[in-house]
Each structure stands twice: as C-alpha cells, then as structure tokens.
Specification:
Length: 274
C-alpha cells in the first residue's frame, strides 16, 4: 500500500526525512528570524497576552517565506548551527526593535511634558511593556503605534525580514560595524527625539512658571502654588493638543527613514554574501 505522504512505508521514513533536511533547516532559520521580529515589532500582540498571536504568526510567516528551490547549506557542526540560528534571531530582533525605538522616543516626549506639567507623580503600568509610564507618555506612544500600523509599517518590516526583494537568504547575516553604528545612533536618537518633540510645550510651561513667579513677587497675597497648578496643566494640555499634528508628521518621517536604512543594511549584507 502506498502512503499519501510520498514514502511507501515506515522503513523509508528515515531516507525521506534525510532528503528534506535542507528544507527543515531553512524553515528553522526563518522561524528564528520571525521570532525575533514579532517579539519586538510594535502593535502586533505586545505583552504576555499576545503570545496567542505571535507564535502562530511566526510559523505561518516562516512557512510562507520558505523557498524549497533556494536552500542554504546545513552547517557541518553544532557550533556553526547554533551561530546561524542566533544570527537569524538577531536579524529579526533588529528589524523589529528599531521601529520600537521611534515609539520609545515619542513616549519619552510625553514623559518630559508630564514632568513639566507636574503630572509625573501619577504614573500607571503600561500593559505592553509592564513598566511604569505617565498617561501622556502612554497616549503619545499609542498614537505612534497607530501611525506605524496605518502606514503599513508592520507589513514593510515583515517584507524586509522575508528577504524576498533583497535576496537575503537565511544563514548569511553577519553583524558588522555598520549595523552596530546604526543601532547605537538610533538608540541615542530616542532622547533626541523626545526632547525635540516636547520642547515647544516644555519651553512654554517654563515661561508660564516665570510669569507666575513674577506675579507672586508683585502681588504677595496670591497663593502661587494653588493658582499655578491648574494654569500649568491647562496650558500644557492645550499646547500638547496643538502639537499632535507635528508629532504625527515627525513620527511618520522617522518610520520612513528607518525603513530605508534597514533596507540599505540588508542590501549590504546581501552583496557581501554574494
């Protein structure tokens, strides 16, 4: 009796699997790559509750990206095997982690604004990162995630990770100086982006505090501590509302810039692998 799977009995199972080892190895490398990607990619099942979304997506994307006619060579020893798997995990992590840095930069802008308004004492637990954050920081971070999804950023990152256009096949990625410099620069850009986005509101609030200080000196009967807090919060929220449009524009430009730079890094890897 012929079995539908392509082998005639249990005695041929070993040779059948042995012939599929390159395909299995390619699938394993793609699984490592997409695992690193979806663990950090913003907006796709973040937090512990997203496990039910991430892991099935890893298997589905790995299967969809599998190209049986373009297979990488299986390493000859265990050390090279583990190294190849780790390099793919790192590649996926880089592609997924870099957009999260933009979200962190917008979130830090909200933190700076909250501090200037005197609202940093009322912090909440962010369920996506299990860390403390102010309400304004969390709201701005969610706006950045929504912008990422509306722009199709998750599809662009998945497409880059697949290597379909660039020809970056599993097992050839190597961390180089250009990649390390890129990560260091973008990590430092988190604070820079937060300061630039929050600067208009923070400067305006400092001027409000200066004016309130002058008033307290001119009219000593005014209780500045009681009067200044609602004024500071009101002015801060009003200016922040008018700044949302510019924050969205800057965030959109940052996401587009990062996509281009990630693409250039992958292309450089592909050229060296050839």
């Amino acid at each position: 009796m012929v079995i539908a799977t392509g082998f005639s009995g249990p005695e041929t199972l070993g040779p059948f699997i042995e012939g599929k080892i390159p395909v299995i190895w390619m699938f394993l490398l793609l699984t490592c790559r997409y695992l690193g990607l979806l663990l950090f990619l913003p907006g796709l099942g973040s937090g512990a509750s997203g496990i039910a979304i991430r892991y099935p997506a890893v298997i589905a994307l790995s299967w969809a990206s599998l190209q049986p006619d373009l297979l990488s060579e299986v390493p000859s020893n265990l050390a090279l095997l583990v190294l190849a798997m780790m390099s793919e995990l790192i590649l996926g992590t880089i592609i997924g982690f870099v957009p999260r840095l933009v979200v962190a930069g917008v979130n830090s802008a909200g933190q700076f604004v909250s501090t200037a308004m005197g609202l940093n004492a009322g912090q909440v637990i962010d369920p996506t990162t299990a860390s403390q954050s102010t309400e304004i920081g969390r709201i701005l971070g969610d706006i950045a995630v929504l912008m990422f999804l509306f722009m199709g950023g998750e599809r662009a990152m998945i497409y880059l990770a697949s290597g379909a256009k660039q020809g970056l096949f599993p097992g050839v990625f190597v961390i180089e100086e250009i990649t390390i410099d890129f990560l260091i620069r973008e990590t430092g850009n988190v604070i820079t982006m937060g300061v630039l986005l929050s600067a208009p509101v923070v400067v305006a609030l400092l001027l409000v505090q200066l004016i309130m200080g002058i008033i307290s000196k001119a009219v000593s009967t005014v209780n500045v501590f009681v009067v200044s807090f609602p004024i500071t919060v009101g002015v801060g929220l009003t200016l922040l509302l008018f700044s949302i449009a510019s924050i969205i524009r800057v965030t959109e430009k940052e996401f587009k810039r990062l996509e281009i730079q990630i693409f250039e890094i992958i292309v450089s890897q592909q050229k060296k692998s050839n």
